[in-house]
Amino acid sequence: MKHCIASLFIFCASLAAVPAAEPTVGSIVPALSGLLPGASLPKITGKVVLVDFWASWCAPCKASFATLSRLQQKYGPKGLVVIGIGVDDEMKDYQTFVQKNQPSFTLAHDSEHKAAAFFNPATMPTSYLVDRNGTIRHIHKGFKGGKTEAEYAAEIQALLGE
Amino acid sequence: MSFLHPNTVMKPSVLFGLSAMLLISSCSDTLVRVKPYERGHLAGPLMDPGRDPLLLTMTQHAYFSREASFGGGGLGGGGCGCN
To answer: How far does A95 lie from chain B, in Å, by closest CA?
Structure first.
């Protein structure tokens, strides 16, 4: 009986184990290809990268697409890579949203929520601005139109200048 | 804290209580909590309490009759909790 209860205790303790901490400002971003198996991603070594988590059911995410496209077009030639990671459960929803919005930046479908589980975004959308060394420098939670776009632009310019 | 001494054998009831406590505490976060990126179904139109105006009016009427108060049920945004 005691062994049974002791086993139960160990099982419960394992369930209560604290999960790994999510990346914060100052964390190093691992290779995205490992988190997004099968995705076609551009080379990001030595580039400033904006990793954005979005979903088709998220209205602010849709609003942010125009801004992210503008940023990619303006700062892409200077060394910025925008990668939008869609977290839709259904591939159909993901594809319909992409066809409708036609963004001009790289997209990847996180069908298994592997990348989302690693980054653990606090809200939708959440974006991570990564410097040329692969370190997260800024995290944006949510999208607030022109205010967020201005913040993006200032931060990207600063990181591109480093 | 004597029960934590390595030479002390824990009573089954203490172990059972600790197990239950750990199980309940883990249920509150790691097992049940819906992550922001998993809220697609919550953001669906079926989850909108105001999707049927007639049903909404009747529900509000029943609430007013029962509680003698009105309003305060509005919530901004959808079920996804975005932004």
So the answer is: 15
* Phi/psi-derived region of residue A102, left when phi > 0, alpha when psi is between -120 and 50, beta in every other case: left
Would you list the DSSP string of A54-85? E-TT-HHHHHHHHHHHHHHHHHGGGTEEEEEE
Q: Is the pLDDT at B12 greater than 80, yes or no? A: no
ipTM for the complex shown:
0.76
- Let me know: does B39 contact A24? Beta carbons within 8 Å: no
Structure tokens at A83: 């990668």
Q: Which residues in chain A touch residue B16, judged by CB atoms under 8 angstroms apart?
A: 5, 8
Q: Are A116 and B40 spatial neighbours (Cβ–Cβ below 8 Å)?
A: no
User: Angle at the Cα of A86 (from A80 to A90), degrees rounded to 5?
Assistant: 160
B17 near A CB under 8 A: no
Centroid of chain to Cα B14:
28
- Prediction pTM value: 0.75
